[in-house]
User: What shape does this take?
Amino acid sequence: MSGGPTRKIIHVDMDAFFASVEQRDDPALRGRPVAVGHAAARGVVAAASYEARAFGVRSALPSVTALRRCPDLIFVPPRFDVYKAVSRQIHAIFAEFTHLIQPLSLDEAYLDVTENRAGLPTAWATAKAIRARILEETGLTASAGVSYNKFLAKLASDHRKPNGQFAVTPDMGAAWVETLPVSRFHGVGPVTAAKMKRLGIESGADLRAKSRDFLERHFGSSAGWYHAIARGIDDRPVNPNRVRKSSGSETTFDRDLTDPQEIEAGIIRMADDVWAWCEKAQAFGRTVTVKIKFQSFRQITRSRSHSQVVDSRDLLVSASLDLVRSIYPPETGIRLVGVTVSNFDTAARDDPQDLPLFDAATS
Assistant: This one.
């Protein structure tokens, strides 16, 4: 990982972050299956320890399903203030090695260490030093992927989990990608992976074999990305000034709701959560979206873009209520509502303590 203009990128991903913090702070939980969340009938697992994952317990799994899979599962209520504080410690360690840090969530980040502050000669040595500092400072383990671009570094960080690291060098990148299932690729979600399977694309090699025209016909504007990553190509820089594109909040009700007054009370709470972030970040958007999930788990969204930014709490609440009222009377009970603001006029820069608490990719 040295020589020429080749970037040295590290993707650092904490191991089962929320659950590991809980096991660190309560020795009685160590070695036992732990889920961060609530065991209530409508609860959802926020994070799971590796002991729980052995039973198929994962983040976003309904708590009742998690308990069926692992009857001995121990639920611990989340302590987000603690997780944020630990995250700040970790990001301070990153800053000892480079100023080019792009946080993705509380527990993972990209680092460009082409020129690292510690003066270490290789990205491999730098990743080992970062992981050692994290363990020394927080008592927690991290995994790392080392490569010449972000796509490969992120894939690599998952290859030796937990508490390991893996490097994908320029001479092995394209060939290594061909061996992997496309379902592991960043940017290929479950729906896209299923579509690719129907088209005969299950591995990186399958994806590489498809022409650019084929990919454009079936995947539109995403074709260029799929064509590039199938060849191990990703020119995106590590961007420490990555802007936040939206701010949202959602809640699952204790029971399915049909009463408009109760539904709207939930909408108002979510709008207040979103407005608190917008006001703090001084980021105001033009588009308001309301998410509704019904008793049947069918999910819909209703959005409206405004000619002017939504720059007050009252305007956000009013817009959100107008949107949810457009689905009255609800076809069935509502189990979840959410409110999101996007299309920012002046997008705020992410700060590690303000990053999303949950990420699509869990460590």
The chain has 13 helices and twelve strands. The first helix runs from residue 17 to 25. The two ends are 25 Å apart (CA to CA).
